[in-house]
Amino acid sequence: MASVEKVMKEALSLPSALRAWLAEKLVESLEYDIDETLQTLWVTEAKKRRDEIRSGLVQPIPGEEALAQVRRLLES
Question: Which residues contact 58 (CB under 8 A, 6 or more apart)?
């Protein structure tokens, strides 16, 4: 565990741009460990939502508006 703590300490001492790059690479390395069942569920959900939008059942809103709504909910 000491070596992990050493690596973390060294990583945190890097400039922010390099920390962001390192974080991106670490996340990318996890993407290969995706549970196939979970992946199938997400794809099914994404297709369902796509079909709801295409059929007019659901009206999409811009991302900024959605985030503003979430912020208002969190503030109340």
Answer: 49, 52
